[in-house]
Specification:
Layout (H helix, E strand, L loop, with lengths): L1 H35 L6 H8 L4 H11 L4 H12 L1 H8 L8 H9 L3 H6 L10 H28 L10 H16 L4
């Protein structure tokens, strides 16, 4: 029914929102990196829409900047994202109808989407909820990276140390994760 579909979409948004908040600083950092590496701003929405692979995107910007061979890029992408093969085994793909929905959900299966859909109850979630989660995460990523590219255009090219900002961001996120859950 339309009411239950609306409710499922709203529930999907509520589930995705915390991960979306976490996407914003990383997306902004990637957008800044894209333009500060010398690419035009419009590469940000293209890259984030079509190469939706988190850490691989950060690596890809550098590889493209030095014109790395395609074979090197492909091998890196395979090795970095191989874990997604295992994610797919427990992702509730069986809840989706249609080739397009299944193909997009498989494409949009990030670490965060996987984490949000591994709850045992997710095996019973509706297509509307699952697709809302993966689509909301992807759109947040695209918008954040594009906004970062816009902000990156405002940063003068002579700023020293900006190339270390992404590394520093990951170090801070790692420290905060350790504080929240102290474990080797």
């Amino acid at each position: 029914s339309p009411h239950s579909t609306k409710q499922e979409v709203l529930t999907g948004w509520r589930i995705a929102l915390p991960a979306c908040v976490a996407y914003v600083p990383l997306g902004l950092a990637l957008g800044v990196l894209i333009v500060q590496t010398g690419f035009s701003w419009w590469w940000a929405p293209i890259l984030s829409a079509f190469v939706y692979a988190g850490s691989m995107e950060f690596l890809l910007v550098g590889m493209l900047a030095v014109a790395a061979p395609f074979s090197q890029i492909a091998a890196s992408a395979f090795l970095i994202n191989f874990r997604h093969v295992f994610y797919a085994l427990s992702f509730p793909l069986h809840r989706l109808r249609g080739t397009l929905a299944k193909a997009y959900a498989t494409y949009a299966l990030t670490d965060e989407a996987y984490a949000l859909t591994t709850d045992p109850q997710a095996a019973q979630w509706s297509q509307a909820r699952i697709m809302t989660i993966v689509t909301t995460l992807h759109l947040t990523w695209i918008l954040s990276v594009t906004a970062g590219a816009g902000l990156g255009l405002l940063i003068p090219p002579g700023i020293v140390g900006l190339d270390f900002a992404v590394t520093a961001l990951f170090v801070v996120l790692g420290i905060e994760a350790f504080r929240a859950r102290p474990s080797l």
